[in-house]
Amino acid sequence: KQTQDLAYSNDNGRTWTKYLGNPVIDLNEKDFRDPKVFWHEPTSKWVMLVSLAAAKKLQFYTSSDLKQWNLSSEFGPAGVKDKPNWECPDLFELSIDNESGRKKWVLQVDIGGGAPAGGSGSEYFVGKFDGTKFICDDPDKKSKWTDYGRDFYAAVSFSDIPKADGRRIWIGWMNNWQTALLPTSRWRRAMSIPRVLSLRKIGNGYDLIQ
């Protein structure tokens, strides 16, 4: 069974204490994982995006204190059909290239098989997010591929890059579930180089630029 639990640090992350009230969310589910938590300024709440991997759905929760969470919405199944799972989600707002002041939200989710190069891969959707619900621009909820190579999986973006910098940067796992369990010596694959993200209007839609 997978649950969502909380730990806190009082020394800048050097040591951690598990919250006595854990788990903070327990659905009694086998595949309930990969939380992405971020602060949503317009609603002054924390948002947590969690994957129901086997059901190929995402759940959105909100909280004011990181301890009490309320289910606000769900998304999916959507995107690629007949995928084996849905995991490692991320959600973030991006500026649109050459359109000053305009922004859109990007929802990225990974699949364990069926990607263009074979094996695992990542798909994304562009739309709106109001702090509780993601609405895809495409009414059919079609997705696009984040990467067309074999080894860019489970990318996670940094939420707290200083506003003076302004970039959205993520790092992926250089791996593929077709090869992830093969033995190696002292390590198992590597992380990607950082990628800086933006959106660009191409045709009638918006593409993720890295």
Explained architecture:
This protein is mainly β. 0% of the residues lie in helices and 48% in strands. It is built from no helices and 18 strands. The strands form 5 sheets. Strands 9, 10, 11, 12 and 13 form a 5-stranded antiparallel sheet that branches. Strands 14, 15, 16, 17 and 18 form a 5-stranded antiparallel sheet that branches. Strand 9 and strand 10 form a beta hairpin. The protein is globular. It starts with a strand and ends with a strand. The relative contact order is 0.14.
In short:
The protein is mainly β and 210 residues long. The protein has strands at residues 2-4, 7-8, 17-18, 25-29, 32-40, 45-52, 57-63, 70-75, 87-95, 103-111, 121-129, 134-136, 144-145, 153-157, 168-174, 190-191, 195-202, 205-209.
Count, helices: 0
- Give the topology string: H per helix, E per strand: EEEEEEEEEEEEEEEEEE
Radius of gyration: 17 Å
What's the count of strands? 18
Largest sheet: 5 strands, antiparallel
- Kindly state the mean pLDDT as a whole number? 95
Task: Tell me the structural class.
Answer: mainly beta
Q: What level of helicity do the residues show?
A: under 10%
Assign an overall shape: globular
Distance between the termini: 36 Å
Measured by DSSP, the beta-strand proportion falls in over 45%
Q: Which spans have pLDDT < 50 for at least 5 consecutive residues?
A: none
